[in-house]
């Protein structure tokens, strides 16, 4: 499964072509379907979501869980798999942003790619800046820190290990 890190802003030409960031291309090259990226409208933002085939396989398998609410399954199947568009990278590492997806996200002359570990998002750059500021305000208000997150995960892992003993 590919790992997507960092943020990049790339030009979108008049034909809707945009370069996938080199780091993203390197990650995609190691997947089960190199040269293809899958895009769909975000459920929560005026942005696009992107992933590789391996991630979609895991997501699809997750939908088989009996613990998943049938309404949630229906939403994911309709809004992710039903709107998903596979896009091929050309020889120069570019994709053509599907017009309906670009319009949904308000992407015109530039596209901001932001890695989110196993997936990535594509935003109109100004909208991404505003979104990041909103998130930063929440981080400050909630006093979130990386050391707190690591400590919480360590406690949870220790608790799970204790249950198995």
TrEMBL record:
InterPro entries: MraZ, MraZ_C, MraZ_dom, MraZ_N, MraZ_sf, SpoVT-AbrB_dom, SpoVT-AbrB_sf. Gene3D superfamilies: Transcriptional regulator MraZ domain (3.40.1550.20). It is found in: Cytoplasm, Nucleoid. CDD domains: MraZ_C, MraZ_N. Its main location: cytoplasm. SUPFAM superfamilies: AbrB/MazE/MraZ-like. Pfam families: MraZ (PF02381). Keywords: Cytoplasm, DNA-binding, Repeat, Transcription, Transcription regulation. Residues 7-53, 84-127 form the SpoVT-AbrB domain. PROSITE patterns: SPOVT_ABRB. HAMAP family: MraZ. Belongs to the MraZ family. Forms oligomers. This is Transcriptional regulator MraZ. It comes from Azospirillum isscasi.
């Amino acid at each position: 499964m590919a790992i997507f890190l960092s943020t990049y802003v790339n030009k979108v030409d008049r034909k809707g072509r945009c370069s996938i960031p080199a780091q993203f291309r390197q990650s995609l090259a190691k997947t089960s379907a190199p040269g293809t990226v899958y895009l769909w409208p975000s459920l929560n933002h005026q942005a696009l979501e992107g992933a590789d085939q391996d991630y979609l396989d895991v997501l699809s398998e997750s939908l088989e869980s009996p613990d998943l609410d049938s309404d949630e399954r229906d939403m994911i199947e309709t809004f992710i798999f039903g709107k998903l568009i596979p896009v091929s990278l050309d020889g120069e590492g570019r994709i053509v942003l599907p017009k309906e997806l670009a319009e949904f996200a308000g992407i015109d002359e530039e596209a901001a790619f932001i890695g989110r570990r196993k997936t990535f998002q594509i935003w109109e750059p100004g909208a991404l800046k505003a979104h990041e500021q909103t998130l930063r305000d929440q981080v400050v208000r909630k006093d979130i820190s990386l050391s707190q997150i690591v400590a919480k995960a360590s406690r949870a892992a220790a608790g799970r290990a204790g249950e198995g003993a």
